[in-house]
Each structure stands twice: as structure tokens, then as C-alpha cells.
């Protein structure tokens, strides 16, 4: 009789622990999912604000250069002097240019595009890059500037001319008009994505060192990184070459509509969740890539703790039942 009672008690306790563990794990799953969403969307918004602030600073510096060119449209030499006088405004800018309309200065002919380019952190040199080979009048950014009559950031592109300025760029562009209201030139500030990759690395380091994200015992291990993607889902900047391509139709549609969202992806063979959202002023998006193993690390810790508690509880019940048996035999 005691043996049956003991078995009944053990089975009852086991079922209670299984039910309790299932409810606890489901509750933890819901809580961790909600917390992860709030955490990574918040991080994404902070990263977006930091990048947008840097971009606004670059825009202001570039506009100062463009305004200086606009004030000195009386001769080619004064335009060049205006470009050279402002090259130290932003070390992240690779070069400033003024691409003129055909024969705006008759002595300069069809292609007149002075380009002041940084050759290192402090020195710069003047290059004349306009030519039949580099017919900037047919470039997308030039045509768009003439149509829009406003400043904008170009889509990322690769420029190659066989020199040391070849590389991946984005350009802040603005049409410049003379005192008679004629389009004189399209000015631009060329930037590579090195500054953006460094900015992303700094952002990730700040997140990993943040006390609010690391104060809890069950916090994640920090297996995430931030990237910037274009509107077509291609990666244009990432820390330490941790690129990711996100071309799924669902995500591209969200990017086109500039929505905040998330998607599950295999990133270089690692199951991951990607949170993404738009950046102000540019047609780019911030995306935080989080490995699922890291995201569910707290849940595995909770599950292990529940398993330990369940085993200990069953052992305690077994000991109590054993003592009851001995007590009855006495």
C-alpha cells in the first residue's frame, strides 16, 4: 500500500513539475521575445540617430563649401580657390567637386570639373576629372540634380578611373545657380564608407559596454552587430567586414515603404534575427543582426534552472516517501 502511495505521489509531483515548467518556459519565452524586441529596436533607433546626426554634420560642412563656390562663379580660378579653401572642413570627405554645365566657362569647353581630393589626412591636391571618358553630364547624380533643384545623397556606387581615388562612394549633391538663375554646376562631396564602418563599430562597442544591457544575470552574450543597408537590401557598411545581404521580397518591400521590421535569416550559416529601420536624410537603413543562440541564451538558462529545481524536488519527495515507509515499518 505504501509502495503504491509512494509511486502515486512521485508521479503526481512529476506531472506538477512538468506542467509548472511548461507554463514557466512559455511565460519566459513570451517575456524574452518582448524584451528582445524592445532591446534591439531601441538599439537600432539609437544607432540610426547617431548616424543621422553624423550625416547632418557632413551635410552642413558640404553646404558651406557649395555656398563658397556659388559666391565665386566669376572665373574658373576663383571656383578652384573656393573649393581649396574649404577642404579641411571635414576629414571624412574624400573630395569636393564642382561639375559645370557645358561651356559655362567657354575657355574650359564641354567638361570642366575641378576636384579637390584628400590624398591623406591633411594634404590634398587638385585634379581635373571631367572628360569624354568621364562624361559626368550623363551621370545619374547630375541628371537628378538638374531635375530636382535640391540637395540629396546619391545611391552608393563604385567609381573606377585607374587611380587611387577608385572605390565605393556615396555623394552629397547640390545644384548651384548663378545670379541670373542659370544652372552653373552641380557640386558634390564624395565620401567612402570607411567612416560609416568605424561609426558602426563604435556603436556596437557602446552597446556592449552599456550597464542597462548588462546588469542582469540572464543577459545575452553580445553576439550581435550593426550594419547599414541600401533600399534594395544590399549591405553598404558593416563593422569588421561582417556584411549581410537581405534581398528577400518581404524585407525589400518593407524597405521600400521605410518601415521598421524584423526578419529571420541564415547569416553566413548562423540562424539569426535581423531588426531593421530607416535612417533620416538618406535612403539607407540600420539593421541589427542577432544570432538566435544569443537571443535565446536567457531561455536556456531559465530552462536549466527549472530542470535543476525539478530534479531536486523529485529527490526531496522521494526521500520523504522513503522515510514514510520506514516510519510505517517501525
Compose a concise summary of this entry:
The protein is of the alpha+beta class. The protein contains eight helices and twelve strands.
How would you characterize the overall build of this protein?
The protein has 330 residues and is an alpha+beta fold. Helix content is 46%, strand content 23%. It contains 8 helices and 12 strands. The protein has helices at residues 2-70, 76-85, 140-148, 194-208, 211-214, 249-256, 292-295, 297-329, and strands at 95-100, 114-118, 124-128, 152-153, 157-159, 167-177, 183-191, 224-230, 235-237, 261-267, 270-278, 284-291. Strands 1, 2, 3, 4, 5, 6 and 7 form a 7-stranded antiparallel beta sheet that branches. A hairpin with a 7-residue loop joins strand 5 and strand 6. It is rod-shaped and about 110 Å long. It starts with a helix and ends with a helix.
Outline the fold blueprint.
Layout: H1 2-70, H2 76-85, E1 95-100, E2 114-118, E3 124-128, H3 140-148, E4 152-153, E5 157-159, E6 167-177, E7 183-191, H4 194-208, H5 211-214, E8 224-230, E9 235-237, H6 249-256, E10 261-267, E11 270-278, E12 284-291, H7 292-295, H8 297-329
Antiparallel strand pairs: 1-2, 1-7, 2-3, 4-6, 5-6, 6-7, 8-9, 8-12, 10-11, 11-12
Amino acid at each position: 500500500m505504501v509502495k503504491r502511495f509512494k509511486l502515486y505521489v512521485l508521479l503526481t509531483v512529476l506531472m506538477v513539475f512538468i506542467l509548472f515548467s511548461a507554463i514557466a518556459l512559455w511565460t519566459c519565452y513570451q517575456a524574452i521575445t518582448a524584451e528582445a524586441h524592445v532591446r534591439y529596436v531601441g538599439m537600432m533607433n539609437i544607432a540610426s540617430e547617431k548616424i543621422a546626426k553624423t550625416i547632418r554634420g557632413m551635410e552642413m560642412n558640404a553646404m558651406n563649401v557649395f555656398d563658397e563656390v556659388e559666391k565665386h562663379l566669376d572665373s574658373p580660378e576663383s571656383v578652384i580657390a573656393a573649393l581649396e579653401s574649404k577642404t579641411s572642413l571635414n576629414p571624412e570627405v574624400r573630395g569636393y567637386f564642382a561639375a559645370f554645365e557645358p561651356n559655362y566657362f567657354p575657355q574650359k569647353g564641354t567638361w570642366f570639373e575641378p576636384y579637390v581630393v584628400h590624398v591623406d589626412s591633411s594634404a590634398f591636391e587638385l585634379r581635373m576629372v571631367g572628360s569624354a571618358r568621364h562624361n559626368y553630364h550623363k551621370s545619374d547624380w547630375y541628371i537628378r540634380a538638374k531635375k530636382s533643384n535640391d540637395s540629396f545623397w546619391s545611391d552608393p556606387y563604385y567609381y573606377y578611373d585607374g587611380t587611387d581615388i577608385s572605390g565605393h562612394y556615396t555623394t552629397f549633391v547640390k545644384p548651384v545657380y548663378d545670379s541670373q538663375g542659370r544652372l552653373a554646376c552641380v557640386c558634390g562631396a564624395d565620401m567612402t564608407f570607411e567612416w560609416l564602418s568605424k561609426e558602426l563599430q563604435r556603436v556596437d562597442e557602446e552597446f556592449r559596454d552599456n550597464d542597462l544591457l548588462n546588469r542582469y544575470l540572464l543577459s545575452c552574450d553580445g553576439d550581435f552587430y550593426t550594419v547599414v543597408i541600401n533600399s534594395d537590401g544590399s549591405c553598404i557598411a558593416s563593422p569588421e567586414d561582417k556584411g549581410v545581404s537581405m534581398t528577400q521580397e518581404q524585407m525589400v518591400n518593407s524597405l521600400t515603404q521605410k518601415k521598421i521590421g524584423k526578419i529571420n535569416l541564415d547569416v553566413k550559416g548562423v540562424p539569426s534575427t535581423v531588426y531593421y529601420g530607416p535612417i533620416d536624410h538618406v535612403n539607407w537603413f540600420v539593421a541589427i543582426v542577432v544570432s538566435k543562440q544569443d537571443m535565446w541564451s536567457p531561455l536556456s538558462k531559465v530552462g536549466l534552472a527549472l530542470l535543476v529545481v525539478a530534479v531536486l524536488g523529485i529527490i526531496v519527495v522521494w526521500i520523504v516517501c522513503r522515510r514514510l515507509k520506514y516510519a510505517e515499518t517501525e
